[in-house]
Amino acid sequence: xxxxxxxxxxxxxxxxxxxxxxxxxxxxxxxxxxxxxxxxxxxxxxxxxxxxxxxxxxxxxxxxxxxxxxxxxxxxxxxxxxxxxxxxxxxxxxxxxxxxxxxxxxxxxxxxxxxxxxxxxxxxxxxxxxxxxxxxxxxxxxxxxxxxxxxxxxxxxxxxxxxxxxxxxxxxxxxxxxxxxxxxxxxxxxxxxxxxxxxxxxxxxxxxxxxxxxxxxxxxxxxxxxxxxxxxxxxxxxxxxxxxxxxxxxxxxxxxxxxxxxxxxxxxxxxxxxxxxxxxxxxxxxxxxxxxxxxxxxxxxxxxxxxxxxxxxxxxxxxxxxxxxxxxxxxxxxxxxxxxxxxxxxxxxxxxx
Length: 353
Hints:
This protein has about 350 residues and is α+β, with helices and mostly antiparallel strands. The chain has helices at about 35-45, 90-100, 105-110, 125-140, 155-170, 185-190, 210, 220, 325-330, and strands at about 1-10, 15-20, 25-30, 50-55, 60-65, 70, 75-80, 145-150, 175-180, 195-200, 200-205, 225-240, 245-250, 250-255, 265-270, 275-280, 290-300, 305-310, 315-320, 335-340, 350.
């Protein structure tokens, strides 16, 4: 477990954050200027806080009261930047061993680097370069992995290329991973824990599915990006229709494409703006997915919208309707309604392993 509780004055900007990051990916999310990179730099030892404490397990990295401030090279933090920062004159193999030689065969396997070892950075795609940068960071056997918007410079195809490798890294390397991002779809797909910053303060934190389904965080995410994340299992394939059947605590839904093998776990992000509500079971509609849900919260925004928290089984969903619709339907906490989700509403970028 990584523990962070720090304060830092940066001119007119004041950083004051506290959170815990367990093994897995803890996404540090927020608008530009919210303090995301400053937090990661403080953990890595590149920025000295004015107060507080940073520790991983029993190892204290920084403690103002005890006058502990380990140098970056003594913190066991592997850092991956936006640009890969590989040595252009070295092969991939030499770039990797520059970081160390810890468990090299496993790192190469997890990140799929076997076919790249004799190539140089100039001959690699953006996604391949970032995989090598990840490998180099892991070769030092870090206790913490820090990733500062590692996909920000990549186009959509390169992002799609590297995301499965980061998912595998999350699941197989049991250390805290701090992942800085301003992309909600990345966060929803990769994170196990989410910390949202605004103006240098933590405004929401916890398991990613819990935080993203909270109606009160919609203004922080943006109305177009807000949506719930639900873990599901592949229950079957409708081969003639090109659909995959997924099950979760709230029932079953159908999604287009081949989403995995029978019994495989998948993570689905369902955008709030693509969930339609009905007070009665709908009839004669084209949408394939209708779930019986209970309203858990109503949050009215500054504009014409209302964020509606929903419980489906033991999972949480999120919908966004207009204030007029909420009033006309008489929506209230505790009310049973029906959530309608179009199979085509969820894009490939919203589906993870």
